Amino acid sequence: MKKHEIICKDVMEHICENLGEELDSPKCAAIKVHLNNCDNCSNYFKTVEDTIQFYKNYNVELPEGAHERLLKFLGLTN
Amino acid sequence: MEEIKLIEQAQLGDKKSLEELVKKYEITVYNFSFKICRDKNRAENTMQETFLSMIKNIKQFKGDSKLSTWLYTVVSNHCLMLARTESKHAYTSFEDEEGVINEKKFMDWKVTPDKIAEDKELKEFLDYAIAKLHPDYRVVFLLRDVEGLSSEETAKICNLSVPAVKSRLHRARAFLRNELNEKFNYEKT
Fold first, then answer.
1. Which residues of B touch A40 (CB under 8 A)?
2. Global pTM?
């Protein structure tokens, strides 16, 4: 079997494609090893994760009166 | 009452059950609408249209997928249709893949995601960055990463193959990460 030769660009592409997916292929295993030994890729991985978390944490409240307007629009008011 | 019972009652025309379903999902639908269109008025309009569609079509709902998945589909389609009617907006092109990922020196950021709630400027920047992302990519990023749906569910909602979802996700993540990185300015070129 051909050995997986991993470079930083492979890791960055892989992180962006497969973050959150099952990581059990031989290539994934090689990427994990690379991540543990490369500060550059490790930082990239962390900042991609942070990017997702920034958008996950950014939530908005329902505006005042929006619930009542919705029920009225739908004809569900008594 | 369990959701399946509420749906059955709603299918029989019970207004109270419809109201319960609306109450259960209104914040999810409003938030997701806002995250796609980044505008509160449009988000409210989309929420109203989404639930109107739910009420009109509730009898056809067979329970093959979750009601939430069905609502995400309606919101996505509505927002994408709105975006297409005003397609003059200049979104970032992903034709030049080398421009999305490169091999510069990457540094960790000093700003952490838990600061978002108290930082108005940061919110404005997140709005600005994601507004540059084409809505077709934005929807995939939001469904998969922000709402936490699987690649398969995202593919079904967007009418895409799973590889196409992964491809769009890859570009969207890298693009947004690079935008935020420029703002945080901790990466030296």
1. 105-106
2. 0.85
